Structures are given as structure tokens and as C-alpha cells.
Amino acid sequence: EDNLYGLHLSKSISFSDTTSTFTNNTTAPVAADSITHTGDVSWELASLYSIVLIGSQTINAGATLTIQPGTVVKSIQYKNIVVDGQLNAVGTSGSRIYFTSHQDDTVGGDANNDGGATTPVAGWWTGLHVRNTGSATLDYCTVSYGGYWNAAGIYKTETGDLTISNSTLAHTNGAGLRLTEGYGAFTSTSNQYNDNTYGVRLSQNTSFSDTTSTFSNNATAPVAVDGSTHTEDVSWELSSTYSIVILDSQTVSDGATLTLQPGLVLKSTQYKSIVVDGQLDAIGTQESPIHMTSH
Which residue in 34, 110, 176, 218 is deepest, having the highest Cβ count within 10 Å? Predict the structure, then answer.
């Protein structure tokens, strides 16, 4: 009680406590310094409280950060979690894991101890950046109020795998999920992409398949594609309830194929086009036609 931090974590320190109470700690119930984790680490805290990132976290290649079910992770302004190793955040339907703003009092208590004087805003913290050979698995998670710097709640760059299921990506300044070319295995199933600028944002040479997730109140598009020159084979698939929107023109290079799967609705912002120097395959069915139309 009545500390700056209830507990203060430093480099590669695991923590598990679901029975203690934390009261009137000025900045955080449990605080995590700016840390580069070189070994395996596990965090677990009762969902009444939160672990607050007072500095950015980096998970080195070969190291794993495991967030246990029910744990709430909050961040002060601008910070992020950078994954060069492995992030495992596997919750359950009754014990979700949260990654959110320090100002968010809806989960994990009033971590900044201000009595509700502040409210969370999109872009408060940077979010999760899974890069290089880093991989991440998120199940029954909520990632919200990110998007500072990289305009994404979850940003996947370079190789490495990403699996997101039964999760909510919301209130992002930018895309709930942003994918760039070169990633390894990618799966998105039964997620909710809500109240972002874009639910998902894709770059060149980036395939996407998800027919089970929902998209709501994303300002510009459920799924958006940057202006791209595709030099590799790409496939796009989305439930016909929603649409993939090209933000700028697409070029399919000689030797590359763009495949639009049955049922896809592809929309375009004004004046844009798809230029095919390679191959465009858009083969729908009577039950699942493909639509190419205006935004």
C-alpha cells in the first residue's frame, strides 16, 4: 500500500501472484522497467490489478515472454513490446489477457491511481511489434489503444509466425493488425477488429485469409491494402459481409499471380486501379460471386 509501485520488476524476472492486494500505489500495482529479456519470463497477476510497462520491453531471439490467463498488461505513453523471440499470450474465454493503456480503468483497476480523471485514447502506446524472426501467439486477448509510431495495435514485419484467435483488436490509431511482406505462417480466426482506422492493413506481397472474424466501426476499411507492386503470388479471402479496400493502385508483376477467392468483395478508393502484367485469378461460384466495386 501507498508506494510509488507496489512491486518493481527488472530484467528477465518472472512474477506470479494472484492472492495479494495492491492499494494506493501512485504509478502501478506492478511495474516493469524498460527491459531486454534474454531468458524465458512469465507474468501472472490477478485481473483486479495490472502490470504496467514503464519502459518498452524487448524479447530477444531465443527468449519467450508468457503472459498467463487473466493478466492485464498496461503501458505508459509511447512504449511497446518488441518481439524478436516468442510471445505467448494464451488466455481463456473466462480469463482474457489484456494489453491496453495505463489510462484504461475498465480492466485491471485504476493503475495510475487518478480516480478516473483520465480516459484512454487511441495511439496512447505503440503496441506489439513482432519483427525479424520473432513469433507470437495470441488467443482470447484484447489489444487496445495502440498505434503510436507504427500506426498498428499489432505490427508484423519480416519472417516469423503470427497466430491471433478469439481476440479483440480495438481503438487503434491506425490498423488493429498491420502485416508486411515476408512473414511466415499467419492465422487470424474468430477475432473482432473494432473501432480502428483500419481493421487490418496489408502491404505488397501480403496474402490474407479470414472468413470467421468480425469488423465493426473501422473508420476507413475493414481490411485495407496499401498501394502495391506484387512480385510474388498473393491470395485474398474475406467473408462477403465485409470488404478489402485498395487504398492505392495495385500492380501484379510479370510472373506473379493475384488470386481473389470466392465470395470476396474488393473495393477501391477513388481513381485507383489493378494493373495486371502477370496473372489475375478471380474465379467465384454461383453461390459465392466475387465483386469488384467502388469504396
Answer: 176
Cβ atoms of 275 and 252 within 8 Å: the answer is yes
Segment 176-192, tens digit of pLDDT: 999 999 999 999 999 99
pLDDT digits (tens, 9 = 90+) for 219-237: 999 999 999 999 999 999 9
Cell of 70: 487473466
| Cell numbers for 81 | 513490446
With 90 as the cut, is the pLDDT of residue 2 above it? no
Grid cell at residue 286? 454461383
The Cα–Cα gap between 198 and 288 comes to: 25
**Whether pTM exceeds 0.90:** yes
